[in-house]
Design brief:
Blueprint: H1 2-19, E1 23-27, E2 31-35, E3 40-43, E4 47-53, E5 57-65, H2 79-93, E6 97-106, E7 109-120, E8 123-134, E9 137-145, H3 154-161, E10 164-165, H4 177-216
Antiparallel strand pairs: 1-2, 2-10, 3-4, 4-5, 5-9, 6-7, 7-8, 8-9
Length: about 220
């Protein structure tokens, strides 16, 4: 009986262990990241989010298109501005206490890391973020847990370092060039349209004057 019970426990334990498998989640055609297990998909208005909750850590990644305000349209090196605004807004909305924020390389690209502590009735929650702005999109990897973790924590390193940009280097943009080009294109288009309208009015006016002169001096 004891042998049978031990065998049953061993089978259940094996199922639990082997039932967990790493899952590589793709983010459109931008990037990918590896979760400890299969995450849940959450649809956003301007992008997507994937989330996995374990007993001790919640793993999250989200990617969404962002629209910059008018005052940022002609700021070419926009990444730093985006990162600082994100850290400030997210900490503020969570009523959190900032632990750190710093520049960081994310898969070799100019990224950003920040962390803050959020207080709950059951105790504090520590949230760690890694952000990357590219091609008018913001990708944020995050880990939420009840314990304060060091930078070299194996769970943080495993999750954050598994993030990979899948675009070719030539296709990656981290500046505001597309926004600038779009704005300039719209401005040039408007100027051409207004110029044509003025030209048409002038030509019509000259035509009317010409006809009147012909009638008067006929």
């Amino acid at each position: 009986m004891k042998k049978l019970t031990f065998t049953f426990i061993l089978i259940i334990y094996s199922i639990a262990i082997f039932g967990q498998h790493k899952f590589t989640q793709k983010l459109a055609n931008l990037a990918q990241i590896t979760f400890p297990d299969t995450p849940k998909a959450i649809k956003l208005i301007t992008g997507s989010q994937y989330q996995l909750e374990t007993d001790s850590i919640t793993y999250i990644i989200r990617a969404e298109k962002i629209s910059l305000g008018p005052r940022y349209r002609f700021v070419r090196d926009i990444a730093d501005t985006v990162y600082n605004n994100v850290a400030k807004d997210w900490v503020s909305k969570a009523n959190g206490v900032l632990i750190y924020k710093r520049k960081a390389l994310v898969d070799g690209w100019k990224g950003f890391e920040f962390s803050y502590k959020k207080k709950f009735a059951f105790g504090p929650e520590y949230r760690y973020y890694q952000a990357l702005y590219l091609n008018d999109s913001l990708i944020i990897c995050s880990m939420w847990c009840n314990d304060s973790l060091k930078k070299d924590n194996k769970d943080i390193k495993a999750f954050f370092s598994s993030f990979k940009v899948t675009l070719s280097d030539d296709d990656v943009r981290q500046d505001n060039s597309s926004e600038i080009a779009r704005e300039l294109g719209q401005m040039i288009g408007k100027l051409i349209a207004y110029g044509l309208m003025i030209l048409i009015v002038v030509l019509l006016g000259l035509g009317v004057v010409f006809v009147i002169k012909k009638l008067v001096y006929k």
